[in-house]
Amino acid sequence: MNDPRRFQRLSAQDLPAWLAAHPEALLLDAREARHHEQGHLSGCLRLDGRNHERLLMREPKDRPVFIYCYHGNASRSYAQMFVDFGFHTVFDLVGGWEAWQQHAATPPSHDTQGPGEHGNTPLMQAAWRGDTAGVEALLAQGASLTATNGDGNNALWLACVANDPALVTLLVRAGVPIDHQNLTGATCLMYAASSSKPQVVRTLLELGADPHLLTQDDYTALDMAASVECLQLLRTATRTAA
Predict the structure, then answer these.
(1) What is 182-217 written as a DSSP string?
(2) With CB atoms counted within 10 Å of each terminal CB, which end of the chain scores lower, N or C?
């Protein structure tokens, strides 16, 4: 029997059913703003270190709460905090956003167009796995080049997640939009810069990615650079473009 004074933990596999059963739940993202911008669960609110007290004091205690972070560590502390403040139903995500992303990229079906978990098409799933042969086969079968998933990301984004510059090149040359912006305005270049993937940043810039595009919060890829190498690449590209 679950201890009512403790939060409970959800696996990525069980999350879709839980969300469907709790449409009124308060969904909280405990990651940094730039990672929240790159992708998050639909309808969630980011915990920014300043709003948790307001939520703890003002939200109804019978409202279900679900919290996730990067790897499922910080979310446990936040979840226990909500329990300690009297919330009745509190869950966090085992493995965090990383586990959800891995679950979302399920193996491809025989359908070259239809979305799977989290809206990822087979082309996106193959790109996420770094499966060049699979990507080539799906492109030859006419897979959509403009399809996006639940976060508004395309197949090129998933190739960037895989940290595969050759696959990035293949998809761009096949016609997947290089400057596509997701639901928060983030581009593949922004993601690669913020994730410290300098080889992907270099490849995207060489293929013509625009370093001047802005997110909804007015951040550029340069603003989001997470390493010196990415910063230098983007500064050079920005100066050259100017």
Answers:
(1) -TTS--HHHHHHHTT-HHHHHHHHHTT--TT---TT
(2) N
